[in-house]
TrEMBL record, chain A:
Coiled coil: none annotated. Residues 209-239 form the 4Fe-4S ferredoxin-type domain. The keyword Iron applies. This is Hydrogenase, iron-sulfur binding protein, putative.
TrEMBL record, chain B:
It comes from the Bacteria. PROSITE patterns: 4FE4S_FER_1, 4FE4S_FER_2. Keywords: Iron, Iron-sulfur, Metal-binding. The keyword Ligase does not apply. The keyword Iron applies. GO terms for molecular function: iron-sulfur cluster binding; metal ion binding. This is Hydrogenase/sulfur reductase, beta subunit. Pfam families: Fer4_22 (PF17179). Residues 221-252, 300-329 form the 4Fe-4S ferredoxin-type domain.
């Protein structure tokens, strides 16, 4: 049985038994090569679920839809390892209760989608630990290496150029499962903390503010870069922050739901190399 | 005999226009993202694109634009009015859907208030469009009563020659004629056959949609929630749309000096309709998506007798979760009445 068939029949089973009220997964999109999030609530609709290598969007953010989990019922969701990590971060930040979430885990290897064993966030500990180890040995991509080799001045002007295309549509924020604030700082207009204008300063403020806000929280799912209509490689900013956090604190966000957020916790042996 | 412009002469045309002090804009790509940019030669133009990622509207309605500056001193208050640049411009290689979109925006910006920021730029620009010989899955101009060779909103329409070596030229306005006059020696007479226009299938029944939308019974339909369930509420569809024109006026600065700016805004954002009381009449994303569709195909067409959509398809092409106007109207056309 293909992984798609496997999860379709599991979805049918869970929905028929009333174990879950909804399955959040992927379905066919507007063109043959597109996939889209679908919300399946009856067993008959489970055949709409699709799972293949084009299913890239991290769907965990949909779990935070207002009211979705407020009735204590369970929801199943298709998640990759990144997605499961974001689920853990959301739980650690008190945004959801993982006991209400059933995971349809999958990974993409080459030209195939493969199931990952487990059904509860806690079942994936070893998979996440392996991903953490793998990240350490993962080579940087070409653009990231180029950025590292730049002088701070060159790097600043690179990002200034990239941000100049930002149109302030906030697709990066909306696509990001970690951007769960009901009210974003840029939507606070009394006082207006951050310029809403899409000029050099406003674009720099927004994009750097978001990158800092994600330090130690980003699971590098890539939703931001995929959503950006201006093709700004936002994931590289977040990846750089993640490198820092992993190197300084050995912190890999989303290990489990008990993991303390790195920037909201204190240990006596935290390095303080940045304090002069 | 038709008037022809051969591709080999385009560079000289651009040089001629530039000699006359005109800025020349056209589709070009930087940083992997295409849009309308000032070009110095024909080689910088990207005329094979079906559509640029960003729209023509950016040349008339920038993402952010200063309107007014102030500086408060001990003895006096100084104010400064910012005006759009005066320079005349040729915008070459526009697609007919984008050109038609600018006419839609003209209606809005000349309604209860004549928006000088929009019209100064509009009045000093010549739009030279090129009929489409290619389309993609997202193009839907024909569903909006337009076509790949629509003349709406253009000053000149170029029809690609079958041989691919130039265009047949048609002036549509006086402004267009003037722009052609300055390159007249570079235009030839001839009877070269033109390429067929792109095949863009009609995707929905616009009139059926309009009558459904106009029925107040459907305002609270479950349909809105179902169709917009996956919408994440980003503004990319509105910002990439040629006819979306909402803006916000923001003051940036402090008590002593600052600038008042006109910035893009989007009905997709929760803050868009937030009242000072904290109440939001469009509290959910489905209400915001409904507003977007209603505005484009019901309110706007009732008020201005034109749909606020020209079928460019960018809303769907770039949507991170594969939403779009096409699918919504397709679904509406098939709803039970």
């Amino acid at each position: 049985m293909s992984i798609q068939e496997h999860y379709r029949s599991r979805a049918k089973e869970l929905l028929s038994a009333g174990t879950v009220k909804m399955v959040i997964g992927y379905g066919a999109g507007s063109t043959p090569d597109r996939r889209r999030p679908v919300f399946i609530t009856s067993p008959d609709e489970a055949d709409r679920l699709v799972l293949d290598t084009t299913c890239r969007t991290n769907l965990s953010g949909y779990l935070l839809r207002e009211g979705l989990l407020s009735d204590q019922k369970q929801v199943a969701v298709f998640l990759t390892v990144d997605g499961i990590r974001s689920l853990n971060v959301l739980a650690a930040e008190s945004q959801l209760d993982t006991s209400q979430v059933l995971v349809f885990g999958f990974g993409i290897e080459g030209d195939q989608a493969r199931a990952i064993e487990g059904e509860r966030a806690a079942d994936f500990k070893s998979v996440i630990a392996a991903a953490k180890e793998q990240r350490k040995s993962q080579p940087a991509d070409e653009l990231q290496e180029k950025l590292e080799a730049m002088t701070p001045k060159e790097r600043f002007s690179f990002w200034e150029g990239e941000f100049s295309r930002c149109i302030k549509c906030y697709a990066c924020r909306q696509a990001c499962p970690m951007c769960w604030c009901r009210r974003c700082v840029v939507d606070n207009n009394q006082p207006q903390w951050v310029n809403t204008s899409s000029h050099t300063l406003g674009n720099l403020e927004w994009n750097l503010l978001r990158a800092f806000h994600l330090a130690g929280r980003c699971v590098e799912c890539g939703n931001c870069s995929r959503a950006c209509p201006a093709d700004i490689p936002l994931h590289l900013l977040n990846r750089r922050m993640a490198d820092e956090v992993q190197a300084s604190f050995d912190h890999y966000p989303g290990m489990d739901e008990a993991q303390e957020p790195v920037l909201a916790s204190f240990r006596k042996d935290d390095p303080e190399t940045f304090i002069l | 005999m038709a008037t022809l412009l051969y591709s080999a002469n385009l560079n000289d045309c651009i040089a001629r226009w530039r000699e006359e002090g005109l800025m020349v804009f056209g589709p070009a790509t930087t940083g992997g993202v295409s849009g309308f940019q000032e070009v110095k030669d024909a080689g910088s133009l990207d005329l094979d694109l079906i559509l640029t990622r960003s729209t023509l509207k950016e040349l008339f309605f920038p993402r952010t634009e200063p309107m007014l500056g102030y500086r408060i001193g001990k003895q006096q208050i100084e104010t400064e009015e910012f005006r759009p640049p005066e320079g005349r411009r040729i915008i070459f290689g526009v697609r007919p859907c984008d050109a038609a979109g600018m006419q839609v925006d003209d209606a809005l910006f000349d309604w209860d208030y004549h928006d000088e920021y929009w019209f100064r730029r509009r009045d000093s620009s010549v739009i030279v469009s090129i009929a489409c010989t290619h389309a993609d899955d997202f193009c839907m101009c024909t569903s909006l009563n337009l076509s790949p060779d629509s003349t709406k909103g253009s000053d000149v329409l170029l029809r690609p020659l079958l041989a691919g070596n130039g265009w047949q030229v048609e002036a549509l306005t006086e402004r267009g004629e003037n722009a052609l006059a300055s390159i007249s020696s570079l235009l030839k007479e001839g009877g070269d056959p033109t390429a067929p226009v792109a095949d863009v299938p009609v995707k929905f029944d616009l009139e059926a949609c309009r009558s459904w939308l106009a029925d107040p019974e459907n305002f609270e339909s479950r349909f809105w929630k179902e169709i917009s369930e996956r919408c994440i509420g980003c503004g990319s569809c509105t910002y990439l749309c040629p006819t979306c024109h909402c803006f916000d006026i923001q003051d940036e600065g402090d008590t002593y000096k600052g600038i008042r700016r006109k910035n893009w805004d989007s009905c997709s954002f929760s803050l868009f309709t937030m009242h000072t009381s904290g109440h939001n009449p469009r509290a959910t994303q489905s209400a915001r998506w409904r507003q977007r569709i209603m505005h484009k195909f019901n309110y706007f067409s009732l008020k201005f007798n034109v749909n606020s959509c020209t079928g460019c398809g960018r809303c769907t092409r770039e949507c991170p979760v594969d939403m779009g106007v096409t699918e919504t109207l397709q679904a509406i056309s098939t709803l039970q009445r």
